[in-house]
Amino acid sequence: MSRATIVIIGASYCGLGVANGLLKSESDKVKIVLINPSDKVYFNIAAPRILAKPEFFQSSQYLLPIETSFSKYPKESFEFIKGSASRIDTASKVVELSSQQPPISYDYLVIASGSTTSSSVDGELAPFKPMKDHDLEVSISSIQKAISNANSVIIGGAGPVGVEFAGELAEAFKDKKDTSITLISASERVLPMLKEKGSLAAENALADKGIKVIASTKVANAVRSASGSKTAWVVNLDNGEQLQADLYISTTGALPNSQFIPAEFLSADGWVNVDENLRVTGGSEDGLIYALGDITTQPLRTAIKLADQIPVVVSNLKVAILGTGKLVSYNPNGSFMMVVPIGESTGTGQMFGWKPWGMMVSMIKGRDFFISKAAGMLGLN
């Protein structure tokens, strides 16, 4: 039996998870080709602390090498390609790369290219997620330096990343004088995906740290002021108010990394359409292409939900490769769980319908943002 070539685009949580899941049990039957712009994976769960507190972690703790972790598998079972996909040619079953590298043929294709945040195009460049066209280490170092030199910061977006980042900034600024942090929330309350008790707990914790929250308001635009001015950003709100700060950092929304994906696979706003088996829909590929993670139209892009998608894709690829078994479905429903640290010692969230204590959030995530478990969570140990 010849090896089936599975090309995986994207080496973050989902891409790495599928690669490891197939190699652990079928390394003699598959050839995994993993394509990623960087040869390191960014443990971006910890991004709010990484960016706000440069001294807290070493870069080696959150930028982890990809290739070395796959050395335990046979050489003929795995290949890593550092590069960016530029086009999927479904007729020829190849992935074309943006550099001068030759196209990569596939028997099965897994799209796990993920998303990036609006901070890549709006406000000060802040890598809360990997950004294809920017060097991660340089980008992280640059925003860390900008934050350390700032006294005032406006944060657009009061979802989990915005709230966590605000809490980290407040602690980073605690020894500075005349500082201010403002959080802009488009919704009536911060963390609107939580039950009201969880949101109120977040608002109280933010207030305790001296963070101003402006609710039910959106950022209309943010403009960097002329050089030489002490104030670097002018932020205009949709209520007509104008704010000024040394930095404006956006944490709102997500942008799909889908520029290379055929239009027939995409929703109107650029996300990949999948069925209940996480097979890409819209073409005639008959189960040859799968997608999972942030890139799909599936709701609730939390780490827990994404982890649930990995075994579905692994199982269904095995069915296709081995020709036995039944396809399994992904069920996005079930308990909603989220923990949101607000600094190192408190936080909020939702677990099995109830709000965890601040100290519990600190113990679960707030102490190190899972950095100590990063390699295991990514399958890189």
Automatic annotation (TrEMBL):
Identify the domain of life. Eukaryota
Q: A Gene Ontology CC term for this entry?
A: cytoplasm
Q: Does the keyword Oxidoreductase apply?
A: yes
Entry annotated with the keyword Flavoprotein? yes
Query: Which GO MF terms does the UniProt record name?
Result: electron-transferring-flavoprotein dehydrogenase activity; flavin adenine dinucleotide binding
Query: InterPro entries given for it?
Result: FAD/NAD-bd_sf (IPR036188), FAD/NAD-binding_dom (IPR023753)
Transmembrane feature ranges: none
Q: Which UniProt keywords apply?
A: FAD, Flavoprotein, Oxidoreductase
FAD/NAD(P)-binding domain: which residues?
Answer: 5-301
Family assignment? Belongs to the FAD-dependent oxidoreductase family.
Query: Which PANTHER family does the entry link to?
Result: APOPTOSIS-INDUCING FACTOR 1, FERROPTOSIS SUPPRESSOR PROTEIN 1
- Identify this protein by name: FAD-dependent pyridine nucleotide-disulfide oxidoreductase
Organism of origin: Penicillium frequentans
